[in-house]
Amino acid sequence: LGRPELGGGGHGPSSQKLLDRISDLQQEISKQRLRHESEVSALRSRLEEQRDKGSALATERDRELELMQRRLADRKANFRDLAISAELYRELEALPEEQLTLKEFVCVASYKAVE
Question: pLDDT tens digits for 43-57?
Answer without folding.
Answer: 999 999 999 999 999
